[in-house]
Amino acid sequence: MYNNMVRAISLLSLLFVKAVMAASPGYVIKLPDQQNWKIVHEQRQGNSFIQEFVKNNESIQAWSEMVTISHVEQFIKTSVETVVTQTINGLKKGCPSFRHSVISNNPTTVIFRWSDEGCGGWPAQEGVMHITATENGVFNFQYAYIKNKVSPLVDEWVKTLSEAKAVP
């Protein structure tokens, strides 16, 4: 349920473009060890989309690390602060153990680390989220991992997501 809620929030507050791990219309992101990732979920509605990647030997049902990229087309301009607040409030409502700390922010982008102690039958997770508001909508670049299942290089992911760009 929690994972479905995270997906629903991503779909409602931040949806995704056709991605490849280098450059494609809508965004540019270079994943560390990009050849070891595969797309396991993709959905598009108009100019809004979501795409989820896991390691090649994992599935959407059983993963240790996941990258989610999404874009939601907006018809009414919304500030990045409003989007971040709505996203965090929605996650806290569905998962009371959800915590976050802002790494960086500016008028169009907020990057924060987050964690939870497990929700909706899913084990404890941590991650990094980058939310950018553009004239065309809101982009969300996210890295998540299952606590104690992997030894992630979180600082590398903070750098990777900090360098991710929405392309008008």
Outline of the structure:
This protein is α+β, with helices and mostly antiparallel strands and 168 residues long. The chain has 3 helices and 10 strands.
SSE map:
Elements: H1 2-13, E1 23-24, E2 27-28, E3 37-45, E4 48-55, E5 65-73, H2 80-94, E6 99-105, E7 109-116, E8 125-134, E9 137-146, H3 154-163, E10 165-166
Antiparallel strand pairs: 1-2, 2-10, 3-4, 4-5, 5-9, 6-7, 7-8, 8-9
Strand share of the residues? 35-45%
| General shape | globular
Widest beta sheet: strand line-up = 3-4-5-9-8-7-6
Q: Helices and strands, in N-to-C order?
A: HEEEEEHEEEEHE
Oligomer: single chain
> Helix fraction?
10-25%
What summary fits the major beta sheet? 7 strands, antiparallel
Question: What distance separates the N and C termini?
Answer: 34 Å
Low-pLDDT stretches are: 1-25
Residue-averaged pLDDT: 78
Salient structural properties:
168 residues, alpha+beta, 7-stranded antiparallel beta sheet, 3-stranded antiparallel beta sheet, 10 strands, 22% helix, globular, disordered N terminus
Describe the overall structure.
The chain is built from three helices and ten strands, in the order H-E-E-E-E-E-H-E-E-E-E-H-E. The chain has helices spanning 2-13, 80-94, 154-163, and strands at residues 23-24, 27-28, 37-45, 48-55, 65-73, 99-105, 109-116, 125-134, 137-146, 165-166.
